[in-house]
Structure of Protocatechuate 3,4-dioxygenase:
Amino acid sequence: MSEVVGGIFTSHVPGIGGAITKGLQHDPYWKPFFDGFGPIHAFLQREKPDVAVVFYNDHGLNFFLDKMPTFAVGAAPDYRHEDEGWGIAFDRPMPGYPDLSWHIIESIVNDEFDPVTCQTMTVDHAVAVPFELAWPDGDFPVKLVPVAINTVQHPLPSPKRCYDLGKAVGRALESWDRDEKIVIFGTGGLSHQLEGGRAGHINVDYDKFCLRNLAPDPEALLQHDTLDIVELAGSQGVEILNWIAARGALRGSVRELASNYHVPISNTAAATVLLENREKVRA
């Protein structure tokens, strides 16, 4: 039966991909961030997940301002990385898992969500960078189920709606009856803004509030509405919605195994958190 082993939460700044490509992992500017992945590598080596369900935001690759779904789930047989030019360049597609994708889609529709279903889909740095960080040898041993959340075009979904989506995905995974291990990813953030008068905005207090509460009290992150988060964390800091949804998908009792916070990386507060599903929820 299926087993959700835990969650990996990480920034997906495209500049990280550039640093990997240039071999800058031990450069003083980058090293404090990359050092945070040691526990994640050990966790993945120990657990050896078969599937990664990734909550992320698309950066105009599949969806643009004229057509922006609130939620979208990939149901493609594979996902080619076709970034907008900032991230890692690799030509091999990531294998998909249509059977599980459709199981999730059908389950969350029954839970009153209405996702866009994508039988063809490409992915950008929001998926590629976390995968390269998690499996630095470039061999991705998991099948991918991507869940895209709108963090770009208003109106944005509320934190509670994203948390509830994550819980609905978690219920779908609990009812998946194949003998597989599943790891959850939440990617993006933390606080940053790339444009306007507040370009470069970083809110360490808000970031640490999120890091402090993610494992023991995720509902604390729901006290701010989406516009509050934009004010607190910056226009791109609203990517915390991806983390909130991913945390919702971890339905067992969790514990934090590792947390890392580094400021700045490319005008971004970069963070990494590893949560273990202590009860190892099984279908």
Notes: The mean pLDDT is 92.
